[in-house]
From TrEMBL:
The lineage of its organism: Bacteria, Pseudomonadati, Verrucomicrobiota, Verrucomicrobiia, Verrucomicrobiales. One of its GO terms (cellular component) is plasma membrane. Belongs to the exbB/tolQ family. Pfam families: MotA_ExbB. This is MotA/TolQ/ExbB proton channel family protein. Its main location: membrane. The keyword Endoplasmic reticulum does not apply. It is found in: Cell membrane; Membrane. It comes from Akkermansia muciniphila. It is a multi-pass membrane protein. InterPro entries: ExbB/TolQ_transport, MotA_ExbB_proton_chnl.
Length: 263
């Protein structure tokens, strides 16, 4: 593997002041112990970002093919098949309809209002799952600048304690003091560099989740309406079926018959 592109990228990310370059590794070490929690937060942020990318896909929330297959089972009143289909489908819609199918299997005479409440409760749970997941980005975006500010405050306190103890005097010492203040501000810069992208990612995924949840609500409402239509229809053979074997058999007395041949 050619290391030149990586070396070029690392050089481009250096902090340049005048004629001097400050590598990121050097700035990280100068930032103090607060830089380590910021590093852990940055790793967590990347993991959450990848999770949000996968969990908010259209196929992970509302796969079109699964919706069509589910409504086909509903129209046939095959709730066992619907349950098996949704159990094998890893999506928010599948989990909602799995709850509906299992409820219908346990309660064949359920009313539409009950089915609607079950679907609404599970749909709200799935929407809450998506919202909680992206809220982690908001949490990281809020905590990272606070950690950076804490590191700066600690560094400034250390610098001013040294001033109070008389460690800084003369021109060279004042330059050293300015360097200490600059090092203290590294953590604030690090926290902002982590917090701003996290907040921007949260804003993007929030709008994406709102769209996915709206589509999910529309699809579940339509599917539950199909369930309601099927509940209103009588089952085949349950009404209007009149079989000959169900007729009462009345014995006939031959002596009661009148001879009408002469009429």
């Amino acid at each position: 593997m050619n290391p030149v592109p990586f070396t070029t990228l690392a050089a481009a990310m250096d902090f340049v002041v005048g004629d001097r370059n400050y590598p990121l590794s050097e700035l990280f070490m100068k930032g103090g112990f607060i830089m380590w929690p910021l590093l852990l937060l940055s790793i967590a942020g990347v993991v959450v970002l990848v999770m949000c990318c996968f969990s908010t896909r259209a196929s992970a929330v509302l796969p079109t093919k699964l919706v069509e297959q589910a409504e086909s089972f509903i129209r046939k009143r095959d709730y066992t098949g619907l349950s098996i289909l949704c159990k094998n489908g890893d999506s928010c819609y599948a989990r909602v309809m799995l709850t509906v199918a299992n409820f219908m299997l346990r309660n064949p005479s359920a009313q539409f209002e009950e089915v609607r409440e079950i679907a609404s409760a599970e749909g709200g749970r799935q929407a809450g799952f998506l919202s909680r997941q992206i809220s982690w980005l908001s949490d990281i975006g809020a905590v990272a600048p606070m950690l950076g500010l804490l590191g700066t405050v600690v560094g400034m306190m250390k610098t001013f304690f040294e001033i109070a103890n008389g460690d800084f005097s003369g021109g060279k010492q004042r330059i050293d003091m300015a360097g200490g203040v600059a090092e203290a501000l590294i953590t604030t810069a690090g926290g902002l560099m982590l917090g701003i992208p996290a907040i921007l990612a949260y804003v993007y995924f929030r709008s994406r989740v709102h769209k996915r949840v709206g589509d999910l609500e529309a699809a579940v409402t339509h599917s539950v309406s199909v369930v309601a239509t099927q509940l209103q229809k009588p089952r085949a053979g349950a009404a209007g079926a009149f079989h000959e074997e169900e007729l009462p058999k009345v014995p006939v007395d031959p002596t009661s018959l009148r001879d009408v041949r002469g009429l």
